[in-house]
Amino acid sequence: MTLTTDHSKAELESENLRFGPARAGESRATRFASFDVAAHPVPTGREEEWRFSPLRALLPLFQAEETTVSADHVSYDVDEVEGIEIGQLGASEAPRHSALVPEDLIAARTAQLCANALHLRARRGTEADAPAIVEITGHDASVVAHGAVVLETEESSQATFVLNHTGSASYAQNVEMILGDNSRMTVISLQDWDDDAVHVATHVARLGRDATLKHIVVSLGGKAVRVNSTTRFAAPGAEVEQIGLYFSDAHQHLEHRLFVDHAAPKCTSNVTYKGALQGKAARSVWIGDVLIRAEAEGTETYEVNRNLVLTEGARADSVPNLEIETGEIEGAGHAAATGRFDDEQLFYLRSRGIPEIEARRLVVRGFFAELIQKIDVPSIREHLTASIETELARSMN
């Protein structure tokens, strides 16, 4: 069975039109945010923001005991790349915390505990000649570790940053992406943890005038992974493309929550997330919130989420939301679908002599191919292709 929602531009052109589940009368624009740890309660699971999340697995990240920022538990290794400066920022050093204001307890505690953040910066007018790769390796999941990263492209600069997460960890992370006017940034966050890892990340981007961000999130490993991505347009003419790819196995929870805040006119956002699930209690959650404020005239936005369920016992939740405060937009829409193999595709392939198992593999490869080709780092494309082949071998042999 396939469930789909799709809305055309014409359906969305009336003022103050809102889509998505009611949030007790609260606009997404007014959600509480604070650096004060005491102001954020431990969630119960009844809150809209946490009702899909595995709170039992995440519980250690909400607790104050047994936390650290020590490299003994999670270490960083950063490649030196020409055109990228590597440093640190204290809690009050700009541009740290110019984009992020924590909306939950985990992000607030991470901001409090991390006295310094890793800072990668492309200076004004420079173009990095290669991706800057940050290897983030977990060594011990028994203690919660915290980390903070600030990625910056100054005016008219261009850079690609890769955050590669591997190993065993219980890890809370804040990532800020600061884009100067007319700059271009690509961020690839790869969650390829061991099976026991728990990871909650808050990614927040602030885009200047005519800035362009490509934000790619790939989640393959870990026991429970939750990535919250927020994009805020600070000036006109900016553009963001958000791409997500995930593959959930038995008893694995992969959750992605996005918020695109159109607070400036003539900005563009496009979101495409795709996931596959296999095995008992495999779970994925995708929440896509888009807010078009009254001042954001000329906005163009679209978001889509597709899920392919490969075996019995897997579950995918997909909730796209649009909140629109002006009718003066270029276009806005969303779509979500969850289904099994396309019988027509399988019939077409099998009628040409392709065995069923290989036909199913071809369908899944085609499902992900569009997104993989949008990743500009060849080594990551190759890694993802190999990882998907490994996942398919588990369920189809």
From TrEMBL:
<comment type="similarity">
    <text>Belongs to the iron-sulfur cluster assembly SufBD family.</text>
</comment>
<protein>
    <submittedName>
        <fullName>Fe-S cluster assembly protein SufD</fullName>
    </submittedName>
</protein>
<dbReference type="InterPro" id="IPR037284">
    <property type="entry name" value="SUF_FeS_clus_asmbl_SufBD_sf"/>
</dbReference>
<dbReference type="Pfam" id="PF01458">
    <property type="entry name" value="SUFBD_core"/>
</dbReference>
<feature type="domain" description="SUF system FeS cluster assembly SufBD core">
    <location>
        <begin position="141"/>
        <end position="367"/>
    </location>
</feature>
<dbReference type="InterPro" id="IPR000825">
    <property type="entry name" value="SUF_FeS_clus_asmbl_SufBD_core"/>
</dbReference>
<dbReference type="InterPro" id="IPR011542">
    <property type="entry name" value="SUF_FeS_clus_asmbl_SufD"/>
</dbReference>
<dbReference type="InterPro" id="IPR055346">
    <property type="entry name" value="Fe-S_cluster_assembly_SufBD"/>
</dbReference>
